[in-house]
């Protein structure tokens, strides 16, 4: 006889969250991301649906609209690049969801210097070659890997703001600065994945996400959607029941 653990798990979870339909449950949690040593909260919503006798389909929505409104104030004035050839300071940034991508646009105050060779630090700078504001527009897609979301650089446009005619040395410096900015943005995206976590008491659900993408919340609001599934075992059921007992929804063990 096949054990139908999935309906049992969903039935137990309805005691913790609203039931959408006979075989679907919604759960909502608060989580956070850390940017420049500052925590920014976001909302994580899960929809769990029966997919088989021992499997629950999982859809996750990360509402990043608070990050969208908070991040500009945190990074404004921060140096995106501070190396021998270039110091680029963020002077303003906007984030939006457009056409399935994240779009970051902003202004940089850029100082470009001569440098004896690549790989040197800011203390090794030579004379200033060009001081110029830049507009930066970054378009990024999404990759889901190891239960985390990583942004992938799809396109990046860099323009000098109100630039006068440049000398050959200034053109070379601005081209080199553009290449460096692309490399820095790619590294930032690769090194800062978003890995949604459930509260410790529900960690045993262990959803495995295999697909995902950006989603627009309201008008231009940032969101991430993930899809996957959860294997339901006896241990999972027992953990859920323990949570219900801890919260007083069910009586304690005799």
UniProtKB/TrEMBL annotation:
Keyword annotations for this protein?
Answer: Signal
- Signal peptide start and end residues: 1-22
Q: Which domain of life is it from?
A: Bacteria
Q: Could you tell me what this protein is called?
A: Uncharacterized protein
Mind giving the lineage of the organism this protein is from? Bacteria, Pseudomonadati, Pseudomonadota, Alphaproteobacteria, Rhodobacterales
């Amino acid at each position: 006889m096949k054990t139908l653990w999935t309906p049992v798990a969903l039935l137990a979870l309805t005691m913790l969250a609203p039931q959408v339909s006979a075989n679907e449950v919604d759960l909502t949690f608060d989580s956070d991301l850390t940017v420049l040593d500052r925590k920014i909260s976001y909302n994580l919503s899960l929809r769990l649906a029966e997919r088989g006798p021992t499997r629950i389909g999982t859809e996750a929505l990360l509402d990043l609209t608070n990050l969208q409104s908070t991040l500009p104030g945190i990074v404004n004035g921060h140096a995106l690049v501070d190396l021998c050839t270039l110091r680029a300071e963020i002077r303003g940034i906007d984030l939006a969801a457009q056409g399935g991508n994240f779009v970051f646009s902003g202004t940089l105050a850029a100082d470009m210097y001569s440098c004896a060779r690549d790989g040197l630090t800011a203390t090794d700078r030579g004379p200033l070659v060009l001081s110029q504001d830049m507009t930066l527009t970054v378009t990024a897609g999404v990759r889901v890997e190891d239960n985390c979301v990583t942004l992938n650089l799809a396109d990046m446009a860099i323009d000098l703001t109100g630039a006068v005619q440049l000398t050959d040395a200034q053109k070379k410096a601005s081209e080199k600065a553009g290449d460096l900015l692309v490399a820095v943005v790619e590294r930032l995206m690769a090194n800062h994945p978003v890995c949604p976590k459930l509260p410790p008491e529900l960690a045993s659900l262990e959803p495995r996400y295999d697909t995902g993408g950006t989603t627009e919340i309201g008008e231009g609001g940032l969101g991430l959607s993930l899809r996957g599934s959860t294997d339901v075992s006896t241990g999972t059921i027992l953990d859920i029941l323990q949570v219900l007992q801890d919260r007083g929804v069910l009586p304690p063990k005799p």
